[in-house]
Write a structure and sequence with these properties.
5 helices; mainly alpha; 139 residues
């Protein structure tokens, strides 16, 4: 009886570790988005039962999201790593902005605006930066 309980606990632990490892590996090579990868790690934590949930909503959402991705209906299309079979990490937000700017300029990189030099504030001694204390008047 006790052996079955330990086996169940060990199975749950191994499943959680497997979900974490698969999520990290798939995120690293570009098969999963960062959101889906981190959500998979969170699902593994919930799988261990540290946070009791009456209905495994997050786990179901993650599994349906993976199924939606595998069906090819993901909003941004199929990830490049799924099509080519090679490791192609997802581009960062800065890389996506740069790509959009190049596309809107006809393939030319957008010129960065030159910054104007900012003049340093002029200080006259040490009293200019600290206010002068007022004296109390005697009556």
């Amino acid at each position: 009886m006790v052996g079955c309980q330990y086996a169940g606990l060990l199975g749950t632990l191994l499943l959680a570790v497997a979900i974490v490892m698969v999520s990290l590996g798939a995120m690293r090579v570009g098969l999963l988005t960062r959101f889906m990868g981190y959500l998979g790690i969170f699902v593994a934590v919930l799988q261990m039962g540290f946070i009791p949930t009456p209905v495994p909503i997050v786990q179901c959402f993650w599994l349906f999201g993976i199924a939606y991705l595998l069906s090819g209906r993901w909003p941004s299309g199929m990830p490049p790593a799924w099509r080519t079979g090679q490791e192609e990490p997802w581009p960062s937000a800065a890389e996506l902005r740069e790509q959009r700017a190049r596309e809107s300029n006809g393939g030319k990189p957008s010129p960065k605006p030159a910054r104007e030099p900012v003049a340093a504030p002029v200080t006259r001694g040490t009293r200019a930066t600290t206010p002068k204390r007022k004296r109390k008047r005697r009556k």
